[in-house]
Amino acid sequence: MLKIILTKELERILIEIAYNGSHYHGWQTQENAKTVQDTIERNINIIIQSKQIIKIIGCGRTDTGVHAEQYFFHFDLKEKFDFDNFLHKINQILPLDILFKKYFVVKPDFHARFSAVSRTYEYRITNEKEPFSGTLYNYIKHKIDVDLMNQCCLKLASYKDFTSFSKVHTDVNNFNCDIFRAEWKQINNKITFTICANRFLRNMVRAIVGTMLLVGRNKISVEDFCDIIESKNRSLAGPSVKAKALFLTKVEYPNT
Question: Do 79 and 150 fall within a single domain?
């Protein structure tokens, strides 16, 4: 990374990070709870030591226990700062479960959340009990029909309104999402669900996975899965799966 000295009146900085969410109550700041955002803001202010209090804006929310292999946030600086060795310095004081990977100077109208064009999540399941991967995989002992669940994936692109897979009391203007890709893959004991969309509702991926697993266990049919989406009724969908196996893996921006 080249040495960058900010000389303009205002610079917007974009940071790429990764984090293990096991010990955090999600990304976003909450009262009386440890969050990723709070932890980063506290440490970034220690390193930059600006006259202003730096507040960061993330590319989205992740719930308690959810991880991010790629996550972005931005903040503004109103004074000169030399970013030489910045990544090394901040990583030295951050907890081991948060890693600063890259930084960029972006245009003032760039927004970590609203400029993103897609986000990709993975949900990771193991069919075999394992003492070491148990914190990052959801162990499911039942036999799962991956082909049936992939039939559900093909149906997802036909819908826009995913009210049935959203938390009931959530502050959003609408429940519409454009799903670009969804698929299940199995390699030996590991089963991974990947889904890419322009946006996600709160709890959406975990609810989709929980409902598809009912199909995979022959508890409900693929047609029932479609009926659940069309009902726009969260109480008809399956239970949300555990957060510990959910990863935000990719966030895409225009021209990237």
Answer: no
Examine the domain organization and report whether 145 and 23 are in the same domain: no
Range of the domain at 126: 118-252
If we measure between CA atoms, which residue out of 52, 26, 49 comes closest to residue 38?
Answer: 26
Domain count, the chain: 2
Q: Counting every residue, how long is the chain?
A: 256
User: Is 109 marked active-site?
Assistant: no
Which residues on neighbouring strands pair with residue 14, listed in sequence order?
A: 74, 104
**What is the rounded average pLDDT for all residues in the chain?**
92
What would the pLDDT profile of 186-197 be if each residue is shown by its tens digit?
A: 999 999 999 999
Two structure tokens written together for 127? 């069919």
Angle, helices 222-231/146-156, rounded to nearest 10 degrees: 30
Answer yes or no: is 111 within a domain. Answer: no
What is the rounded CA–CA span in Å between residue 216 and residue 151? 10
202 domain residue, yes or no: yes
Band the pLDDT of 9: cuts 50, 70, 90.
low
Tell me the two tokens of residue 85.
């060795």
Domain match, 83 and 126 both: no
DSSP per position, 131-187: TTTTTTSEE--S---HHHHHHHHHHHTT--B-GGGS-SS---S--B--EEEEEEEEE
Strand partners, 104: 14
Q: Where among 61, 83, 106 does a domain terminate?
A: 106
**Per the residue annotation, which of 38, 63, 82, 97 is the catalytic one?**
63
Same domain, 64 and 135: no
pLDDT single digits (tens) 197-216:
999 999 999 999 999 999 99
Distance CA 211, CA 182 (A): 14
Same domain (yes/no): 102, 172: no
